[in-house]
Every structure is written in C-alpha cells, then in structure tokens.
Amino acid sequence: MFKNYLKIAWRNLIKNKIFSIANIVGLTCAFAVAILLSMTALFELSFDQFHENKDSAYQIYLTSQTPRGAETSTSNPVPLASALKEEVSGIKQITRSLSEDALVSYQDKDLDLDAEFVDAEFFSIFSFPVIAGNTNNPLPSKNSVAITEETATKMFGNTNVVGDVLQVKVGSDVYPFTISAVLENTPTNSSIDFDIVIPFENHPEFEANKDVWNSQFFPIYLQLEEGMTTEQFEVNSREFANLHYRGSIESDKRDGASPDENGQFKQFHLLPITDMHFVSFKEGKAETARTFPYLILGVAIVIIFIVCANFINMNIALSEKRLKEIGMRKTLGAVKKQLFFQFWMESVVVFLVSIGLGLLLSNLLIDPFKTLFVTKATFAEVTKPAIILLFAASIFIITLIAGGYPALIMSKLGTLRALKGKLDFGKNRLRNGLIVLQFAIAIILISGTLVLHGQIEFLRNKDLGYNKEQVVSIPLNGRKDSYAVIELLRDELTQNPDILSVSGSDSNLGLGKDGSITSSAMGFDYKGRGLITNALTVDYDYAKTLDIELLEGRMFDKKYSTDSLSLVINESMAKQFGEDDPLSIRINMDDAVTYSVVGVIKDYYFQDVKKEVQPLTLFLNRNWDLYYAYVKISPKNAAQSFDAIKTAWEKIEPQAEFLGSFLDENVDRTFKREKTLATIITSGSILGIILSCLGLFAISILVVAQRTKEIGVRKVVGASVSSVALLLTKDFLKLVGLAFLVATPISWYFLNEWLQNYASHVSLSPLFFVVAGLTATLIAFITVGSRTVKAASANPVKSLRDE
After folding, report:
1. What is the enclosing helix (H) or strand (E) of 464?
2. Is 126 exposed, middle or buried (0-12, 13-18, 19+ CB in 10 A)?
3. What is the CA radius of gyration of the chain?
4. How many CB atoms lie within 10 A of CB 147?
5. Per-residue pLDDT tens for 712-721?
6. Is the Cβ–Cβ distance between 199 and 118 less than 8 Å?
7. Dist CA 216 CA 775 (whole Å)
8. Hey, what's the signal peptide range on this chain (predicted)?
9. Contact at 8 Å (CB) between 93 and 223?
C-alpha cells in the first residue's frame, strides 16, 4: 500500500510540472535561507551558555540616584572586590577583570594581544579549560601568565610552551612573565575574549589605586553561594554601599537627588553572565533585549510561512482538478483514511526533496553568508537533537495541513458530486486570507528595509562635529612611549605637503581596526555641586587635526608651560557649569591641584554616534598615556598619503602591526549591527516577495484555467484585451491593497519603537510605507498581469472549443 501511495504521488508531481517545480524551488530556497538564518540566531542566543556556573555567576553593577536621575555603572574601584567578599554574606567567589591590549614579545617576535587582567578566582567562576600546565590554578603567582592555544601557536609554533618566559609591556615598562598554562581558545560565543591572561595586580593602575574608592575602571564578576538569591544579595549589600559610598551619597543628597523605592541612594545589582551579550542600561536598570537574534529567527519563520502558504494554496487549488479522480476512487471502494494518506504522502515527498536540496544549497552558501552577515555561526547550532526534533515536528504539522486539509474536504464529498467535478472551498476564503497575510508580511519587511537603510544613511551623513574623511587614526601598539611616537610621526611626515597635522588622544573615535572602545569619566565638586564629566587626555593640535570648532578661548599650546593644569571643555560641560564666562572657571580636583578652563569647543560625537553628546573635559597631562595617533591629510592624494603614514609607522615601530584607518571607516564599524540587520531584512524582503509572487503566479494560472470559458464568451461579445486582463487581475490587487492596510499600522508601531533607541533618528515619513505598498502592488500586478494578458489575448474560439 505504501509503495502504491509513493507511485501515485510521483505520477501526480510529474503530471503537474509547473506547480511541482514552483513548490520545490520555493521550498528549497526557503529551507536553505531559514537554515542559515536559524543558525545565526541560535549562535547569538548561545552566548555565554557554555559556562558551568552560568546559573550562579553574575556581573555586578551599581545604580546611583543622582540629581540627574538614576545612573548605572559597571566600572568599579580596585578595593571593592575584596571588601565585598569580606563584608557581604552570600559570595562564594569574586574576581576583577579588565580587558586591554598588551604588547607581548618572545625573542625577536612581537604580538599585540588582547589581554585580560584577572584575579585567580576568574578560572573558578568562568569555564575556560586548561589544555596544558597548571589545571587547578592557571595563575599560581604574580609573575605567571596563561595564554590561549592560538597565541602559543602564533608565538612559538606549538603548544608545548609551559615554563617559557615572555616579555610583556605593562604600561610604559616591560616585565618578564612565565607561562604557567595554555588554555583552549575562547569560544566564539563568549562575551569575554582574550589571547593572554595576566594577574590583576600587574595592571599599571593597581598600585596607585588599591586603596582608592573614587577611581573606577573595570568590571567585577562573582559567584553566589548555593541557596543565595540575587534579591537577598541586594538586601545584604545595602549597608555596605551606604558605608563605603557615604561621601558620594551625601554629595548627591546635597544636590537634590531622591532615593529609590527602598530608600537607597546606592544599590548594587547582579546581572546574570548569560545576559551580558544582550544588556543595555537605561534609567538605572539593566535591560536585556534579545531583539537581534529573535528578529533573525522571525525572518526565517516568516519565509517558511510564506512558502508553506504557497504550498497550501496550490494544493487546495490543484485538488479541484482531481475531483473526478477522487470520485472514481470512492466508487472503487477507497475510504477516507486512504484518500487522506494519499494527499499527505504527496506533500511529504515534495517536502523531503526540498529539504534535501535546501541542505545542499545552504552548505554551498554558508561561506558567503558568513562573510556577508559577519557571523561565526556554524551548522553545529542547528544540528542539536532538540532543534532537529523541533524541525521534524514542524514539517510533520505543515505537511499534515497542506495535504490533509484538501483531503478532509474531498473525503467528505459524496461520490456523485465528486464525479461532477464541482467543489466550493468557501469562496476561497482560506486562499485569499493566506495571500493577504503573505503580502502583509512582505510589505512590513519592505518598509523595515527602507527605514533601516534610511536610519543608517542618516547616521552616516550626520555632522559629527569633526573631520572624519581626512583623518587617519592609528592605535599606538608598539614598544615606544606614546608621546615619543607622535613626535616621531610629526618629524617623519613634516616634509610631506599632503600631511597637514598630527595629534593623539587616549580614546579612539568610532571603532578602529584594533576593535577597542574606551571611555573615562570622573566626578568632582564645583561650588557646592557635584558634577560628572567624560575625561579625555589629548596631545597638542588635537582640535586642529580633527577640525573641531573652538568657540571660546584657546586650545593647548606649547607656548604655555602651565597647560598641564589647564582644561578645555565642550559646550555640554560649559552648560553643566552654568557660568556666564566659562573661561573664569577654576576647579579644585583635589586639595593640592587647581585646574583652569582655557577653552570651550563645540560639541562633537566623541562617543557612540547613536547617543547624545555628553559633557567632556580635555586634559593635557604627560603622566597619562595616549593610545591613538591622529593624522590629518590633504583630500587630493588620500591613497598616497595613507601609504606615506604607513611607511613612517613601519620605520618608527618596525615590530608593531600598522592598524591605521580613516575615521569614516571607524564610524561605519559602529553601525555593524544595524548594517547586518538591514542586510537580513532586505534579503528577507526580496525572498519574501519572490516567494509570494511565485505562489501568486501559480494561483493565477489555475484561476485563469477555471475561467477559460468566461474569457472566451467576453471576447466574443466584444470585450477588449485590457478589460479582460483587468477583470482577472483586480481581485488579486484588492488582496494586496487589503494587505497594505493591515501591514502599515503594524509596521509603523514597531519601527517607531525601534527608532526610539537612537538619540537622533530619521523621521518616520508616510512615504516609507507608501513606497513599500506601491512596490508590493507593482510586483503583484506584473506577476498576475503577465499571465492574465496572455489569457486575454488568446483566440476565443480555441477557448470555447477546449471547454
């Protein structure tokens, strides 16, 4: 019996070639894309899930009630970790952790590595397995380091390196460290990524700040004892916060801050490490939004839905052509169960063929897909037993609906009615509903694509307050002192007429090739009020190099020997001071040092372009290192100037990799998530429209076939080709119009919510939705019209004779 079902199923597929090919092509493309998108989404959702202690490990953050409202910080002072462990109950283990670049040398080889400065408990909280060396304690002493397998291979050519000595540049000094362990490479789905791990007490800021509570620059992670909840920890830590942050609390009270619902001005909170990849801090709270992976997964589901709707529609439409076959089968004794299994088997055959082809296609496309979407996901994400089981269950349900629904309808028919070949599917309500839903989804995707690209272009073309097209930023990742490197660059490039200016700072603009983003903030009292500012250490010619507009006063100048005690502030900082004459401001940062404001610059986007410009203070302090050089070039010979900078760098720092990039490239890198999302939505829109039109085209063929006699009669009585084509097309266009009415408010709501994540954004113009609707309508008109015009142009005599 089963063999007979397969044989008849295959014959019917061959008999209806157009519909079989349309179904298989559509399903194959949809399955291939859905597999790749699901792979990406599941990879994103797997971040930090590999840690054995994931259910009891947390990152700590502090919420402060200030005159400006609730503010959060994940940066902490050096003595906090040990004080928390001693004074607050419920903590099993705690570790400090700070990510920085480190120049590591062995013999004549230098590598700029991602370093993680940690406490020994780091490896007890997090699961980073040891493959060689000390497995119980990878950092047994202050002078030991642990490196990854990849780092060992790059540096030594093998992993048998335990006991070897590396030279590591820490701050401005170089120290020897013994390799005590080799670690597995950090997983691609880890929020903490490193090449080398160094004991925290070796950090250059450790000694100076080990007893200082107002210098905060690194995150802290902890593991709670069994039975301890996050709520209990928060209650336990309140008295601790009130004691150790007493001065800051009194300052905030004085300036008008209000306590939280628990009467606290400082409250520690815990963020699960599995949420770190998705967290954002708003109004004093941590918000974890897995929007990106869920949206990718949603696009995959939508594509599968569209192609399955096509499949169901075509199966229902084709079933009417098989009524006489059903009637004959029933006459010969076929029962309902047999008819049902016959139709279902045909659906299963199509799906199995499409799944096989989809797997093959996705395998062929995986490398270009990973490059296009900048993902490290692999097929391992979708080959887990639970995922395969879910996929199999979904296929079972879809084939059951696609093949079972028409079978149930027709199996209920009487034999005589079936033999007459007449069947009413409820005036095609299901078919029309699925078409409306398909095109509504397509319109939502198209409008999303337009708004996403509009927002990216808005941010890309936004005036950032500095010159991003003519300035090259270079990470100072070599052996020499940062100020000396900048002076040497000036000397090397001074004779080049296309090099206009050279400067530096301790923070990059945008995201450079080194992948690091740094920021520094500080607070101080001014005339009885507590103020907070972002702090930036710069070199001479900073504003000149970046074309930042000077509004009042002057920038730092070599002519003034006292500029190490001078400040330059931006407009936002000047407003925070609230003085009529900003150049009269004098600030006592501590009891011994007084700083004077000598200049005010125009606000510029020194942080993420997606955020509002914050108060900023520029310092000129040779005791603080610079981490980036800036070189302004002439627009005439940009390529030659870039090569000249690279040549100069290789002469000055021959062993350090040149990672220079234009600032506009850096800014573009900060849109990586938006660009990936736009690419996914755009691809989904294109595929969704193609699949919808594929189904629409097949349905239009059936509708035209059903109305062949009507077309012939209308032509005989004088109807024109255009009037007949319009008659056949308008019903489908009405469905697209209804889809537009359904999709527009839904699309507007979600896009408006998404745009609220940006301090400045593109206006949500009705034009976005009108263009999306017109695009869908035009494509549907071309799809259906191509078939209806052909039918309307046919010889009416032939149509009537065929009937």
Report:
1. none
2. buried
3. 34
4. 32
5. 777 666 677 6
6. yes
7. 53
8. none
9. yes
Tokens 């490193």 appear where? 194
Q: How far apart are CA 33 and CA 296, in angstroms?
A: 11
Enter the DSSP assignment of 84.
H
CB-CB contact of 133 with 146 (8 Å): yes
- The residues that bridge with 471 in the sheet, in sequence order, are 632
pLDDT attached to residue 417: 55
Q: What residue type is assigned to position 217 of the chain? A: F
Please report, as a single letter, which amino acid is at residue 107: Q
Half-sphere CA count of 515, side-chain side, radius 13 A = 9
Strand partners, 287: 280
Q: Which residues pair with 472 in a beta bridge?
A: 631, 662
Two tokens, residue 111: 């590598």
pLDDT, greater one: 380 or 740:
740
Residue type, 65: Q
CA proximity to 115, closest of 146, 84, 93: 146
Considering only 263-277, 412-426, 778-792, which range has the smallest mean pLDDT? 412-426
pLDDT of residue 123: 95
pLDDT digits (tens, 9 = 90+) for 166-185: 999 887 788 999 999 999 99
Amino acid 556 reads F
- What is the CB neighbour count within 10 angstroms for residue 760? 13
Task: State residue 695's pLDDT score.
Answer: 74
Q: In which region does residue 26 sit, left (phi positive, over 0), alpha (psi from -120 to 50) or beta (all else)?
A: alpha
Class of residue 145 by CB neighbours under 10 A (exposed 0-12, middle 13-18, buried 19+)? buried
Residue ranges in 103-142 assigned as alpha helix (H): 122-125
Bridge partners, 115 (sequence order)? 100, 196
Dihedral angle, C-alpha 234, 235, 241, 246, nearest 10 °:
140
pLDDT (tens digit per residue) in 491-519:
999 889 999 999 999 899 988 887 777 77
Q: If phi over 0 gives left and psi between -120 and 50 gives alpha, with beta otherwise, what is residue 594?
A: beta
Q: Where are the domains of the chain?
A: 2-44+293-457+672-802, 60-254, 478-658
Looking from the CA of 280 toward its CB, the CA atoms found within 13 Å total 7
- Within 202-278, strands assigned E span 216-218, 220-224, 266-272
Specify whether the CB–CB gap between 238 and 88 falls below 8 A.
no
Please state the three-class secondary structure of 694-758 as a single string: HHHHHHHHHHHHHCHHHHHHHHHCCCCHHHHHHHHHHHHHHHHHHHHHHHHHHHHHHHHHHHCCC
Nearest partner of 351 among 301, 408, 297, 392, judged by Cα: 392
Distance CA 16, CA 431 (A): 19
Rounded to the nearest integer, the mean pLDDT of the chain is 85
Which tokens go with 684? 């989904």
Give the DSSP letter string of 338-379: HHHHHHHHHHHHHHHHHHHHHHHHHHHHHHHHHHHHT----G
The string of pLDDT tens digits covering residues 582-596 is 999 998 876 668 899
3-state secondary structure 398-459: HHHHHHHHHHHHHHCCCHHHHHHCCCCCCCCHHHHHHHHHHHHHHHHHHHHHHHHHHHHHHH
CA distance 301 to 313: 18
Task: Give first-to-last CA distance, the chain, whole Å.
Answer: 36
pTM here is 0.83
Query: Measuring CA to CA, which residue among 204, 285, 185, 222 is closest to residue 85?
Result: 222
- What residue has token string 């052509």? 321
